[in-house]
């Protein structure tokens, strides 16, 4: 018996030796299996003592496996009485084993399904967002087109407005003199209007411009009618000027009538009224070449001046000539020299006085050179 035991032990040792032989071993390992063993050996060698202590024990693993009863317990609870029952039971176990084997893949499949659903949901949201973006893009293009159209229409309206504004300005310029007639006529009828004021000069300027405009645009409707009305207003203004100048000259004559012409104060008193009418007479002289109304007015004013001066000095001149004739009776040469000297002296005084009122180039007087009279 001892020999048999030693022989069996020797056979076991030989088999173990054959198991571990590098060549012709009883259970040869593939290269992949050897690499796995080496990797596990390296991992185990790197584990610390604490990590080894934390590894689950066989008891813990057995407790986890107790969640599902062992096969022996499940077999003990079965009541198998026929082959069909056994086959059904075995088929059920086989399905369970297959399910356990496929559990990892099933779980992965479920995860993939969930991810697919999430991706499908995300894709649906992206498509919805793209649809909204397309709608927004269409609306933006529509609004942009409408805005561009509105901008173009606005520019066209602005251009039309500028044209209409220019036309309106042109029409207002042309209608100004037609609309201004009632206002000018009303000002001429105002009792507060003064001929010596600057506003009256501006009024005359407006009347002159209006008359020139009406004459140069005779083809306008009712232009001749407005021209007649403006000429009537100008005649009214000329009458106001004439009345003012005549009154000033007549008043100056009344103030000077008590002083003889030989007195120095005679000319000083009459000349005192020159500052009242000299600007007006200068204005009339400047306008006399424009319209006949001003030229006639200037002639009337000169004639009035001459008549007033004549009324003042005519009797004095006649008396002086009569006195000279009586003093130099028979001496015609002396009388002629004395009378001519007197007349020249009077003429020079009158010319200087006239120049205080009118322009010296008027046809009523000419410059008489001073000559010595012996």
Description:
The protein has 374 residues and is mostly helical. Among the domains are: 87-170; 190-357. 79% of the residues lie in helices and 0% in strands. It contains 13 helices and no strands. The protein has helices at residues 2-20, 31-46, 49-53, 58-65, 71-77, 83-101, 103-188, 198-216, 223-256, 264-271, 274-287, 292-327, 332-355. The longest helix is centred in the middle third of the chain and has 86 residues, at 103-188. The protein is rod-shaped. The chain starts with a helix and ends in a 19-residue tail after the last helix.
How would you sum up this structure in a few lines?
This protein has 374 residues and is mainly alpha-helical. The chain contains 13 helices and no strands.
- Total beta-strand segments: 0
Largest sheet: none
* Fraction of residues in helix: over 70%
The assigned structural class equals: mainly alpha
Counting H and I runs of at least 4 residues, what is the number of helices? 13
CA-based gyration radius:
70 Å
Report the mean per-residue pLDDT as an integer: 81
Stretches where pLDDT is under 50 for at least 5 consecutive residues are 60-67, 366-374
The rough form would be described as rod-shaped
Membrane topology: Peripheral membrane protein
Keywords: Golgi apparatus, Membrane, Protein transport, Transport
Main location: Golgi
Organism: Clastoptera arizonana (Arizona spittle bug)
